[in-house]
Amino acid sequence: MENLKVLFTEEQIQNRIREVANEMNDFYKGEEICAICVLKGAVMFATDLIRCLNMPMQLEFIRLSSYNNSHKSSGKVHAVDISLPDLNDKNVLIIEDIVDTGLTAQFLLDFIKANFHTKSTKFCSLLDKKIARVNDVEPDYYCFEVGDKFLVGYGLDESGYSRNLPYIGYKE
Ligand code: IMP
Ligand code: MG
To answer: Which of 40, 67, 68 to mutate to test the pocket of ligand 1 (most atoms within 8 A of CB)?
Structure first.
């Protein structure tokens, strides 16, 4: 992509992931978890994060969509594939790329609450765009707080492209 400014380098991302993973390793000590990666955006983050986690875990994938190929959230979250195993009595860790308006996170937390009695439910996001929030959702863990810019790379896409970049950037 042309004229892309780097916001977080590959090294910054990987270092910060290790820090957050260490917090989780401390928190979940002795417990097993079920990690749920929200496709497609969180795929890079989830695979790097879980390789730094040392507790026994299952890994599930769900697919949600809210963007309709534009830079603005449509305001409606669409569950493309939300088939999950029995999460009753499990420590659930949701892994997302970015919390923007917070609507996707709220949808997911409501879905889990409505369908399962988990042992615990934690929400982890690579990025937290707090300034765009329309509700009071707060990720339990996040790597970086970001401003109100449209970001691409490391899983984040623009109309399906740029997910493969190893860094996070934005157009000037
Ligand atoms: P929310 O429901 O508004 O919190 O949006 C969450 C979803 O929108 C994320 O999971 C991303 O897939 C997408 N999204 C939000 N901000 C950005 C961005 O800056 N770049 C790329 N995708 C984004
Ligand atoms: Mg996403």
So the answer is: 67
